[in-house]
Structures are given as structure tokens and as C-alpha cells.
Amino acid sequence: MANKATQLERVATIGEITRRFPSKIGRTGLMKCLYFLEVIRGVPLGYSFRLYTYGPFDSGVLDDLRYAEALDVVTSTPVYFSGGYGYEIESSDRNEDLIGRSEEFVKKYRADVDWVIDMFASKSAASLEILSTLIYVERESREANVPVSVEKIVASVRDIKPHHSEENIRSEADWLRSKDLLAA
Amino acid sequence: MAIDSDRTYEVRCPVYGFIKFNDWEREIIAQRPFQRLRRIRQLAWTDLVYPGAMHVRFEHSLGVMNMAGLVYDGIVERSRDVLRDELGYNDDGLKRHRVLVRIAALLHDVGHGPFSHAAEELLPEIPGRQGERYKHEHYTAEIIRRHFRDVIENHPANNNYEFTADMVANFIEGGSGAGQATFWRDLVSGQLDADRMDYLLRDSHHVGVEYGRYDWRRLANSIVAVPFDQEGPRLGVEEGGWHAAEGLILARYFMFTQVYFHKTRSIFNHHLHGALEDLLPGGTFPIPKGRKLDQYLKWDDWRVLGHISSGKGGDHGRRLAERDHFREIRHTQETPDETDLDNLDEWRGKLGELLAAEISAEKSWYKIGSADVPVIADLSPRDVKSLSSYSSIVGSIKPVRQVRMYVHEENREAAEAKLSTA
Fold first, then answer.
1. Is the predicted ipTM greater than 0.85, yes or no?
2. Whose CA, among A85, A151, B233, B344, lies 20 to 30 Å from A141?
3. Percent of chain B scored above 70 by pLDDT?
4. A28 CB within 8 Å of a chain B CB
């Protein structure tokens, strides 16, 4: 059984994702990438994601992000657009030094970080919220040994996120199935 | 015929004056697992530092229910259009989920072990989850499913709502079964939740400090459903209330540094951990399943105090009884920088076996948290920005990750001598 990551290893993982991400990553992108790393790839980050209307969330991720900012591993810049705001997170001066402090951990899970970036870097924040919620609902059913169909998962997600259309949620579910990430 | 719960009762509350509840909520409060919260102190052994801190989870739970209802009503009053247009709510739906939110808020802490969060690290590991331990929320959810099912599902008032115990449990533990009500989870467990809105005020009152006070009436009257174009609405505040939200964030910071992560309070949590490890069969609490859950419910402060009073609990139990705690020898800055991280390694190496305990703020349940509260402008075009873009103070608060190191009192001089060597 793998040991849970230390806080420095989690900060280094945030630094590594940010450094390797092909563009500036947002907070939602970071939150969901860490979720996928933990639950799909089994990286023992030690977060406890719970379901909110905006998808699986752990405030510990934001705490670690703030600590990463305090250590000058990453910088966050707010960006504003019509009908909302977000953040652009970039690798900063001390990133490589901090990653060096957790080199073994980062090296061990580098392929998983590459995988999560390849798979999800092109997705929007809204799409990542739906994708992660679909995975959350399916995993929950699997852990409870309750058989569940894709129709039921889509209906559950629609119930939680009524501002998204059923077609949209279904389309994201189909994408996950095409990548073998949704077994139902 | 369905019977609505319109008869109200009230109890005195040091924070709100009175807390009102209906017949159904009264029945829930009367259940034994809820009454057990009278025997679980809110702040563990904090009274050994702040003598007034003797309050219990019972009054906090009533307070969270009260606060959640107040905030819910305010949100509905100010955000009815958003709730209707974006989330499909009608008046019946809003009334229904108000009832659910209050019940969930009332029950959100029934899974706590003796002395609240101080015992949390002794909850057992979840099978097949890579060393992840159960949290008190898992116990809360199972206790609701097993012990509150009847009073939730079969109370006459439920004919109006058809709630299930699973729905309440899912709402609290973050399961998908809460459905549309998931939107309101932030009100019970989120950045602007009724839980912390209540405990900051209540803890301040009992501890006797001013650090946790903020303008809660203004804040409760400022929280709204903020529309986000793509992601959908989420809870935030109106522009006129951002100073009240700022006050809440600052209250959390002050309470954390002055009370929750106080050096002596922290080491007594360590001693409690040690004493409980000695008292519990196998060193951990029973799992939240079947009859083991009933065994868990038998653990409360009274039982632990009884054991400690009769000389059990090992050296840590004795230390609790005699207020004989380990002494702090070094600590890092509140937010350790790289020099601090190097210092920690050096101190560990020099102290060796003299290091009796190392306590990190990172592992504390009471975190300051990184606030990302949306604020919606009062004037057109009603832009939405983060609270940290309004408040330079909030934007500057760093997470507290302080680490404290302790030694036995009799080893203090020897430890200082070792630490001062080159």
C-alpha cells in the first residue's frame, strides 16, 4: 500500500501539473486533475473529495494551492469574463526547487501526471465539472455494489446540475466511455 | 391527512437569544444519538487553557440548524429568480429543501467521537482506500441511516416531503443521492457554511475571546445564489456584504492562531490521542458498520473521563488529569518557508529521541481555508469577482502550516543544549 503524500509532495504535484500543462491551468482544472489522479490513477494524494453542485471538491486543494503560491512554486492571476471569473495558474521561480525536494514522489507519478494532462487539458471548466461528476456518481455506485446504467448516471448528474442539458451530459458520458473511463 | 410541523418550541441560546424548532425537529433532538452530543465537548480540552470552553456539540448543532435556516431564507428572498431560472425551483421545492437543510444541519455532527475532532485520527482506516481513514461525517451518515431512519421517514410531517434517511445522509456526506438539494451543501459544509458561522461565534462566547466575532447578521443577509454563465449558480455574497464576509475570514484566521492551534491546546490534543490509543481496544474506534457502530456510540466524553479518573489511559491519561503537558521547544513561522523546512529537518536531527511530539497545523481540522467567495456587484452590469479581489486583506492571508515541536519538561535544558550546537 502506497503511503499518503506529504504536504510538500502535494505541493510538488501541483507544481508539476502546472509546469507540464500546455497552457495556463485554472483552479477548476487543477481541482479536477487532482481528483482524476487520485481516483482513476490511484495517486495517494490524501484528499477527500466530496460532491458539490460544481463537482467533486476538497478545500484542501485550495489550501495546498495557496501554500504553493506562498512558496513561490506557482502564481495565480484572476481573469474576468462576462458572467464570471477564474484564475490562471502558472509555474513560478521556485517550482523546480520544490519539486526537487519531493523528487522521488514526482518521478514515481510523472506518467500519471502526463496521462491526466493528455486526457483532460483541452477540456473546459464546465466540461470538467460534468466529467468528474459522472465519474464520482459511477464510483459511488460501484463502491456500494449497486449496479448502475449510463442512463441512470446521466439522470443523477442532471439532477445535481440542472443548468446543464441532458444531451450535454450524455455527450460527456459517451466521451468517457470512448476512453474506457466509464464502465457503465 | 398530512400533518405539517407548524407547532414551534424554543430554547435559550447564548448566541441568538432563542432557537426555535418544530415538532419534527423536536422528535429528532429527543433521539438518544442526538442527546449523546450533550456529552461531547466542542473544543476538547481547551478548558485547560481557556477555562470557559466547556460547551458541547449539542448546543452547536441547534445553532447550526438555526443559522442554516436564517441564511436559507435570506438566499431565497434575494435569489428567487436565479433559483427558479437556473435550478428549476418553485415555491414548493424551496419549502421542501428548507426542511431538508435544517434537518441536515441539526444532524451534521452526530458522528463525532469523544472530545470532537481531537479523536478523529483514531478512526479506523477505510478498507481498500490506500490508508484513508474514516471521518466523523462517515459515522454521521451511518448513524442517520441506522438510528434516525424511523424519526425521519415515519414522522407524520414527512408525508409532506417524503424524505428518506439516505437522502439526509447523502446530503451530509457528499453523496449523489441528495440530487437537486446538492446545491445547498455549501450551506452546511462549504466556505460560507452555517457550521463555521456558528462555531466561530459560539466558541468565542464560551472561550471568552473576541477573535471569532463578525457581523453575522449582515453576512446572513448578504449571501445569495450567484449566477455563473457556464458552470451554474453557486453561493456567494452581494457587494454590500463583502466586508461582513471579510470579517468571517479574518475571524477564522484569528481563532485558528489564537485558540484552535494554541500551543498548549494542541499538545493536550496529543495527550488525548495517546490516552485514547491506550483505552480503545486495538487502539482505534470501531468501524461505522452494523453492531460496531452501536459500540462506537457508547464512546463519549463521560466514558473517557471515567477511565482517566480511575487511572487508566497510560502516561498521557495521567498528564491530562494532572495538567502536566509536554513543552514547546521550537516552532516555525505560521507559513513555513524553505528556510523553515530546512530548520525542521535540522531540529529533528538534533533532538533525536528528545523530540516528544511534533504537531502540524496542516493536520488540524480547524483550517483557515482559502476563501474563493464570489461577490456580485450591486450595480449593472453586475459583474462577479472573487472576494480576494475586493479585499486585499483576504487576498494576502496565507495558509497557516505552522509546525510545533515539544519535549518533556524535564528535558527542556538538554534539548536547548542540543539545538544550540552548531
1. yes
2. B233
3. 97
4. yes
